[in-house]
Amino acid sequence: MPHPIMFDEADPILGRLRALALAFPDAAEKVSHGHPAFFTTKVFAYYGGSVKVDGVHQRHEQSVIVLVDPDERTALLAEDRCYVPAYLGPSGWLGVDLTGDTDWGEIEELLDASYRRTAGPRRVARLDSRRP
């Protein structure tokens, strides 16, 4: 039985995140466990997540989940807008809540870091060749 869709296609925050994520070489989108997932061979970002508190999932519907460097993850987790996502958190993934005040330049940097950890050397080289 497939997971229910847990996002609104018309969500402007999703639209902004989607534009950033799909700009990476060979990036595509699929729905995974009811959420948009951005991937090449492996997923580098998810839109929407949750944390498990006392056995109950608390949703972070407008957030991005990325895989970043462990030192950067530790620093970001000191901020209230960041969380350890259920299921993916033990593998090093980090959730960041997105709002109208989000610094989208920072989100692009987090996506870049996650892409670099998952996309493979040829795609990373293509990404680097596009950058000034």
TrEMBL record:
Q: Per UniProt, what is one Pfam family of this protein?
A: YjbR
Q: Which UniProt keywords apply?
A: DNA-binding
Protein origin, superkingdom: Bacteria
Q: Name one GO molecular function term.
A: DNA binding
Asked whether the keyword DNA-binding is assigned, the reply is: yes
Fetch the Gene3D superfamilies from UniProt.
3.90.1150.30
InterPro entries, sorted: YjbR-like_sf (IPR038056), YjbR/MT2646/Rv2570-like (IPR058532)
Q: Output this protein's name.
A: MmcQ/YjbR family DNA-binding protein
The lineage, from the top, is: Bacteria, Bacillati, Actinomycetota, Actinomycetes, Micromonosporales
